[in-house]
Write a structure and sequence with these properties.
By secondary structure, the chain is an alpha/beta fold. Helix content is 35%, strand content 20%. A seven-stranded mixed beta sheet has the order 7-6-5-8-9-12-11. The chain has a five-stranded parallel beta sheet with strand order 15-14-13-16-17. The longest helix has 27 residues. Bound molecules: zinc ion.
C-alpha cells in the first residue's frame, strides 16, 4: 500500500483479522448482510503516520442515521466547554472573531462560542446531527470539509481565525485535502486546533481498541508536525488529555507566524525517547497485542470453567476490535449491558453478543464484569460500588488485564 500522506510504499505490521464496522450494532435479520474488512495497521517511517490499510467507504459510517450525539454525555459537555474556553483564552485574539469547526456534531463545542457572541460555523456531514446543532443556535452546513468547502466559506463568511476539530481528523483519509482547505480558510495568523486519540498513550497502554474502521490515523506530535508541515504549518502548542484513554490536542499555525510553546519540543523529545518514529516500536506493539489477547482469553475461559457468569460492561465502538480480535462472543460473555437506547436489544458487530439495557446488569449481578468502557474506569468503579462490594469482580482488558 501507499502511505496516505507521503505516498511512500508501506506494509502493515500486523493484522487484527476480519473486522465489522465498529458502530454497526445489528439485529439477527441483518447478520447475513453484515460488512467485513481486514483490519491491518501500518506505520510510515518517512512521515511517521500510523494508519490502517483498508478503510470501509466513509458513506457507510457517516450517514443520516449515524447514531452518535455528543450532547447526550454530560462528561463530553464539560469537556467541550473546557476545550472552547481554552481555545478562546490561549489562541484567539482581536475582535470580530470567526471560528469554524469540522465535524461539529450537534454543536456541543461551538455553542460555547455562540454563547460568547463569537461568529461561528459548523461543518457536519450528518444532516440529522446538524439539525440538532441548529436547534441549539449553532449555525451549521451539511458537507465534508476540503478545499471547495473552504473556498465557499471564505466567499460567504470571510477567512477564519481558527479551524477546530475534535475526534474528527483521525477519521479523515485525505488529510492533505484538509490541510489545503485549512490553508485557504485561515487568516495569516489563524490557527488549526484539533484533538484525537494519542499514539503515545496507545503504544504505552497497548490500547489497541483505538484501532477500528473509523480511525484511519492515530496521531503523534511527530506525525502531525510532518503531515501539516508539508503544507506550511508548524506545531505551536500541545495539550495532553485524559479523554478516550489518552488524547492529544494539537495547535498549528503557519510557519514563523506565531511563537511555539516549549512543550512542543518536550513532547517531541519524549516521543523520540519512546521510539514512536521507529518501526521496531510497532513490532513490539504487535507482540504486546498478542500477549494481551492470550491473557484475556485465558482469564475468560477460567471464569467459564469455574462456572462464573461473565457480562460485558459498555458496548462501546472500541470494544468491537477487542471482541473480534480475541474472538469473544456469547460463548464467553452472556451479554453486554449499555445505557444507549439505540444499541439495546441489538447484537454487537461481528461477534453478535446481545446488548441489553443497563438494568439487566444491576437487576441480576453477574459474578464478573468485563469492563469494555475501560477508559471510564474511575467513574464506573464509583457508580458500581454496590456490585464490587457484594463480591463482584472486574476484568479490565486495558491497560493491564
Ligand atoms: Zn508517509
Amino acid at each position: 500500500m501507499k502511505c496516505r500522506i507521503c505516498q511512500h510504499e508501506i506494509r502493515p505490521f500486523m493484522s487484527f483479522g476480519r473486522m465489522p464496522i465498529a458502530n454497526g450494532f445489528l439485529t439477527p435479520e441483518e447478520f447475513d448482510s453484515e460488512y467485513f474488512f481486514e483490519l491491518k495497521p501500518a506505520f510510515c517511517d518517512q512521515c511517521y503516520a500510523f494508519q490502517i490499510e483498508e478503510q470501509p467507504d466513509p458513506e457507510m459510517m457517516f450517514h443520516d442515521h449515524y447514531a452518535f450525539f455528543s450532547r447526550t454525555s454530560k462528561f463530553m459537555q464539560r469537556h467541550f466547554k473546557a476545550y472552547a474556553d481554552w481555545v478562546y483564552s490561549n489562541h484567539l485574539k482581536g475582535d470580530d472573531l470567526f471560528v469554524v469547526e469540522i465535524g461539529s456534531n450537534d454543536g456541543i463545542m461551538l455553542e460555547n462560542f455562540a454563547n460568547r457572541g463569537v461568529r461561528h460555523l459548523g461543518v457536519e456531514p450528518s444532516a440529522n446531527v446538524a439539525e440538532e446543532a441548529r436547534k441549539h443556535g449553532v449555525e451549521t452546513i451539511v458537507c465534508f470539509f476540503g478545499s471547495d468547502t473552504a473556498k465557499g466559506i471564505v466567499e460567504e463568511y470571510g477567512q477564519s481565525d481558527a479551524l477546530l476539530a475534535a475526534n474528527v481528523m483521525c477519521h479523515i483519509p485525505d488529510l492533505n485535502g484538509i490541510a489545503e482547505g485549512a490553508d485557504i480558510l485561515l487568516k495569516d495568523d489563524g490557527v488549526l486546533i484539533f484533538e484525537d486519540p494519542y499514539l503515545g498513550a496507545m503504544i504505552k497502554k497497548t490500547s489497541y481498541d483505538q484501532i477500528y474502521d473509523e480511525h484511519v490515523f492515530i496521531f503523534s506530535a511527530l506525525s502531525v508536525a510532518s503531515i501539516f508541515g508539508r503544507h506550511g504549518f508548524e506545531l505551536i502548542d500541545l495539550l495532553p488529555q485524559e479523554t478516550h484513554g489518552g488524547s492529544m490536542r494539537y495547535v498549528l499555525a503557519r510557519k514563523g507566524v506565531r511563537g511555539a510553546s516549549s512543550i512542543v519540543c518536550e513532547i517531541v523529545d519524549a516521543e523520540k525517547a519512546q521510539g514512536l518514529h521507529l518501526p521496531e516500536t510497532y513490532e513490539q506493539f504487535r507482540k504486546d497485542c498478542e500477549a494481551s489477547k492470550a491473557r484475556l482469553i485465558r482469564l475468560l475461559e477460567e471464569e467459564k470453567a469455574a462456572g462464573r457468569r461473565v457480562v460485558g460492561y459498555g458496548a462501546t465502538s472500541k470494544s468491537t476490535t477487542i471482541l473480534n480480535y480475541c474472538g469473544i462472543g456469547a460463548n464467553l460473555i452472556e451479554f453486554i449491558s449499555d445505557t444507549t437506547p439505540i444499541k439495546q436489544n441489538k447484537c454487537t458487530p461481528g461477534m453478535h453478543v446481545p446488548v441489553k439495557p443497563y438494568e439487566a446488569f444491576t437487576e441480576d449481578y453477574p459474578d464478573t464484569a468485563l469492563l469494555l468502557a475501560w477508559n471510564h474506569q474511575k467513574e464506573i468503579m464509583a457508580k458500581e460500588e454496590a456490585f464490587s462490594s457484594q463480591g463482584g469482580k472486574w476484568i479490565s482488558p486495558i491497560p493491564e488485564i
